[in-house]
Amino acid sequence: MKKIQISPSILSADFSQLGLEITRLENAGADMIHVDVMDGHFVPNLTIGPPVIKALKNKTNIPFDVHLMISPVHKYIQAYADAGADIITIHPEATENLKASILKIKELNKKVGVSLNPETEINTIIDHLNEIDLVLIMSVNPGFGGQKFMPEVLKKIKNLKRIQEEKNINFDIEIDGGINFENYKDAIKAGANILVSGTTIFKSNNGDVKKNIELLKSE
What we know:
Elements: E1 5-8, H1 18-27, E2 33-38, H2 50-57, E3 64-69, H3 77-83, E4 87-90, H4 98-107, E5 111-116, E6 134-138, H5 154-167, E7 172-176, H6 184-190, E8 194-197, H7 199-203, H8 209-217
Parallel strand pairs: 1-8, 2-3, 3-4, 4-5, 5-6, 6-7, 7-8
């Protein structure tokens, strides 16, 4: 079984202190930094773009896990790669040609992630699993932080894990949306090995991010 990794979402961080927040997360044992990029079009919210990622990249040595909730995504891949994204995760619905977008990310020597919304079936990406480094399962509808976890996606993770084992393919399974101390073990048991969490890491236990990261890694 793969080691459990924690990717804190800076969507829940103090935006006036982002550089300090990222340093704090690294010192607290975060394995990567999850950056939610929203365009107000593909999802109903706006967040940050390449200049902010570029400015933050030199604040840490751990990977930037950049989740692009933007459409059309293909023409922006280069900009986020140049800004410092280490993992670039896209949605199948946000590109006219998923294979071409996957190849573009690979050509830029970045890890490829593909995200599945709660209603998006695994079959959408099944022919591409050999080319993917990470599958991000959304356990909320993307667009806002602080939403309630949708337990029905655990079945999708189990199915994806089964397919992974049957086909003997190596990729990470990441889950994002409403992950907290009540449900994280269910996500791990289903097959997820990377947990994205924002509100729980930044707000629980009086904002003790080190304690919260350690708790989410405990099985």
